[in-house]
Amino acid sequence: DAGVIQSPRHEVTEMGQEVTLRCKPISGHNSLFWYRQTMMRGLELLIYFNNNVPIDDSGMPEDRFSAKMPNASFSTLKIQPSEPRDSAVYFCASSLTTGGNEQFFGPGTRLTVL
Amino acid sequence: QKEVEQNSGPLSVPEGAIASLNCTYSDRGSQSFFWYRQYSGKSPELIMFIYSNGDKEDGRFTAQLNKASQYVSLLIRDSQPSDSATYLCAVKEPGGYQKVTFGTGTKLQVIP
After folding, report:
1. Which of the residues A14, A75, A90, B105 could staple to B86 if both were Cys, CB 3.0 to 4.6 A apart?
2. pLDDT tens across B55-77, in order?
């Protein structure tokens, strides 16, 4: 298995632009998580899905952030409009609801908003 | 607000020594606990999980859990320079879903 796939790996954009991050979970996994990591705040859960349904989006910072999971093999995290304080590494992770509960992380997208 | 607390470090140990990493959590109902390792510029990867009070050993790694004290630790024996990384403690919330709360991590430096 290729593991969790994220794209792009790096994104540099200007303030006010729309940013879309993409994630393909491991085939067969039914839970998907979006995290944001910064030096100051560590790894923060933004939103997670179970069987393509958003379960908890309480970590989404504000209305500028939105996430979708149209099917079991694809999810997006969108920021519109982007701001410099959104600069961070965004990770997608997937897991199985049953079993050992291990979350498998993708390589991350490093976002820089100028 | 559920919290997971870790000392940010850095924790410096000489090669061959035992590294002890500690974590406390606030939700007494938590039942599953995880240690992830994150190398600089990389994504977190699971190295240990523990569900029951006591010790769990896997090679050079030992996870220790004390639910009464709401405390979980990770011991790394015979530390190697390749163990130098940030170690994240994660606590799963009670219930059927997989949501976990991560600590901010402890940076470990193993000095050759």
Report:
1. B105
2. 999 999 999 999 999 999 999 99
Work out the minimum CA distance from A20 to partner chain B, whole angstroms. Answer: 20
How far is A22 from chain B, CA to nearest CA, in Å? 16
Enter the tokens of residue B40: 């600089």
Of A43, A45, A102, the CB nearest to B99: A45
CB A77 within 8 A of CB A97: no
Query: Hey, what are A14's tokens?
Result: 């200007």
Q: Are A49 and A23 in contact (CB under 8 A)?
A: no
Does B34 contact chain A (CB < 8 Å)? Answer: yes
For the stretch A55-96, pLDDT in tens is 999 999 889 999 999 999 999 999 999 999 999 999 999 998
Q: Which positions ≥6 away from B49 have C-beta within 8 Å? A: A100, A101, A102, B32, B33, B34, B35, B63
Cβ-defined contact of B44 to A91 (cutoff 8 Å): yes
In sequence order, the 6+-apart residues with CB closer than 8 A to the CB of B55 are: B62, B63, B64
* B108/chain A closest Cα distance in angstroms: 16
Whether A106 and chain B come into contact, CB under 8 Å, resolves to yes
**B17: helix, coil or strand?**
coil
For residue B68, count CB atoms less than 10 angstroms from its CB and return exposed for 0-12, middle for 13-18, buried for 19 or more.
Answer: exposed
